[in-house]
Amino acid sequence: MNTEYIGIDVSKATLDVYILSSKEHMHVSNTVEGVKKIVSRIKSIKPSKVVMEATGSYDTLCAAHLASSGITLAVVNPRQVRDFARAVGKLAKTDTIDAQILAQFAQAVDPPCRPLPSSDERQLKELLKRRAQLIEMRIRESNRLRTIESERITDSIELVLNTVNKEIARIEDEIYKSIKRSPVWQQKAKLYKSVPSIGEGTATMLIANLPELGTLNRREIASLVGLAPMNRDSGTLRGRRMICGGRPEVRSALYMPTINAVRFNPLIRKMYERLIQSGKPFKVAITACMRKLLTILNAIARDNTPWAYKIT
Predict the structure, then answer these.
(1) Domain CATH number, residue 65
(2) Which of 1, 59, 109, 303 is most buried, judging by how many CB atoms fall within 10 Å of its CB?
(3) Does the structure show a pLDDT above 90 at 137?
(4) Would residue 194 count as lying in a domain?
(5) Rounded to two decimals, what is the model's pTM?
(6) What is the structure's pLDDT at 231?
(7) Is residue 96 assigned to a domain?
């Protein structure tokens, strides 16, 4: 069995590849031609695992070519890699060193490989991201409008708000059409929306940002999102359990549905009332309810069965 590990450091313009056992280094452009050279070399080695960092859009081209070539690839959180680098005493940071650290990280940690998002999933995610940016812009302009007395400035702000609102409507229409084009996404959205407090927006966000729903167990999905409580115990110190890491965009999107679920979802409401009555702080109770809502959605996706709860 081949136990070769390879790290790929990604930047906007270049890719640096480090092959651990032979200490071979490759430096190519982050283009189709450069990626093809990397894929050809890696396929000849048949490594156990290739690791690269998630860098937004810069890693997409290389990751897609590697995955389509049948190469075992793990795309990891950059923070984990930097923590590992500090742990092994590698404080310097260059493209070559980063690629080497990634290869060492692959060997030492053996990070899990998750399915890469399809082209349609990436586009849906970008549409949701753009919608969030426009909504943030609208909030800023609306706040400015309240403090301005000049009529000319007021007209300017209202013009911008008009434009932003039209663009939000256009983006939302594109999101709606994207879901409608995919029978699989339509089915997922229908399943998620069967849960009280989950609406169209949350269902769409889950499709785009959490495609792993239904493929992991409840502990794994909670950890992936960053809703699993982590121990803070050492020696005589006994700290509170805390959540960390994961996918903040999913946690943010689940917060308001959880607040609504406390009122309208009988299962979540019972859990929340029990936690509050036992003396748990509001944030602790809501976080636990968010985790419960996530595990419900995970079970629904796994079993391909809509929400069903009998009030007893």
Answers:
(1) 3.30.420.40
(2) 59
(3) yes
(4) no
(5) 0.70
(6) 58
(7) yes
